[in-house]
Amino acid sequence: MSSEAQSRPAGRDAGKGLRLAVLASGTGTNLQALLDQVHGHDGVEIVAVVSNKPDARALARARAAQIPTAVFPLAEYGGDRSARDLAIGAWLREHDVELVVLAGYMQILSEGFLKLFPNAVINVHPALLPAFQGLDAVGQALRYGVKVFGVTVHFVDSGVDSGPVIAQRAVALPDARTEDDVFAVLHGIEHELLPEAVRLYARGALQLDPAGGRRVLIAS
Questions:
Q1: 102 lies in which domain range?
Q2: Among 33, 51, 185, 190, fewest CB within 10 Å belongs to which?
Q3: Residues 39, 125, 154, 191: which is the catalytic one?
């Protein structure tokens, strides 16, 4: 590394500040949205940013905001994803992180990591799940020929983009032909939905349906 039990999401103390970590692999525009909209507001503080790529633009955004960063390339762990993820989890625990947000983090997290943060890892995905899971979601949608695209924010489980849905928003783009056409619209939606999901979590408004199933209830 180069350094720079199930529980209800609603169970957190809404009067307590929320210490947040962001994992990102790329340019970090969703990280920037979080920095602009939730960091330093209502007790929410981004306290750590992690990437698997040392040249990720997201790291520069974090450093500009004076937020601790760390890089965990898989190669440094001999390709052992579980070992790498446990190292990430240990570093985040050192920073007393309560919620982990995946903002363009292009790695699947191992079960061991998720057990460190039960019901406390959320992801933003550029499709209306459960449609078009995994990588190249927008490309998949274009090849399928859909006319409606969208964004999903969801809790992360051990599957691929299969966790309970927190928020979704759809947009009709019948004339979209390229991924750039779609992302030009979806990025703006991501930058609204992801901060809103963090705010809901911070105030203890999210709860997995006690009746069972996958539904996430949102308190008013």
A1: 2-206
A2: 185
A3: 125
